[in-house]
Amino acid sequence: MPLPDEHLTYPHRSYGMDQDRYAWRPATERAPIAWPNGAALATMIVVPIEHHPLNPPGKPFKHPGAMVTPYPDLRHYTTRDYGNRVGVYRILDALKAAGMKATFPINADQLERLKPLVEAILADGHEIAAYGLSTTHIHWGGLDRETEAAWVAEARARFDAAGLQPRAWLSPARQQSFATLDLIRAAGFEICLDWEQDEVPAAMDTEAGEIIGLPLSNELDDRALTIDRRQTEDEWASQVLEAADYLAGGAGRFGGRVLGFTLTPYVTGQPFRVSALRRLLAGLGAMGVWSATASELA
């Protein structure tokens, strides 16, 4: 079936990458990065704290992890809630035991509800990032700019009210419109975790100045691999370790690089997956990686 004419004529279709946030650059032409203490690899562990309501609107699409069965899907709802009340504390314990730091993006509408968790995260020396307003406020190209700007402003205001000043932003479902980077930079966010265009921090242009994109691997997402692709937790942990070993091995040629991956509380925080998590963190520690938060990398 032939493609429709608009496939090649949409407004952002142009020579090159169809976006002008950064220049096209092969890996062989970027300046090598030196991480602290000569580490060959930095790891950025991201623990997304998200709330999934019983009645998600599903527009423009359902957020990954949203309800599955007809209303009220109490089985999946309570599993997600379990992650933020129980599973996440297993992840905090495992990180502490391994001496590793993480970045915790949190939906702005959950800051008050999850205040004890926010306090526990900060007490352990981790970083809080903004995770949009909620899982039902998904940024996309069909959203008018005024509405999207209001969502970003409200998210910033809720973090301000909680006494938090996050530098990093993760969009709900990691979905953006063409204006999202401009709007979040204008709201004071300096780091974006949505893209994975490289294996090093990458400066991107916005209307309000430069924003740093940090690579967060979608291909190593714990929820996607264990739930969507039905891999075992041991297979997922081995894939992360394999990626780390490969990237560290290339430090002599390319310099230091970043491996970013997620630990989703209602997935990896399950008791039968904690042993795989501990093995993963111990393996990374044995490689001598630099465990860094988003702000430390940017």
UniProtKB/TrEMBL annotation:
One of its GO terms (molecular function) is hydrolase activity, acting on carbon-nitrogen (but not peptide) bonds. Is involved in generating a small heat-stable compound (Nod), an acylated oligomer of N-acetylglucosamine, that stimulates mitosis in various plant protoplasts. InterPro entries: Glyco_hydro/deAcase_b/a-brl (IPR011330), NODB_dom (IPR002509). Residues 77-190 form the NodB homology domain. This is Chitooligosaccharide deacetylase. SUPFAM superfamilies: Glycoside hydrolase/deacetylase (SSF88713). GO terms for biological process: carbohydrate metabolic process. It comes from Caulobacter flavus. Belongs to the polysaccharide deacetylase family.
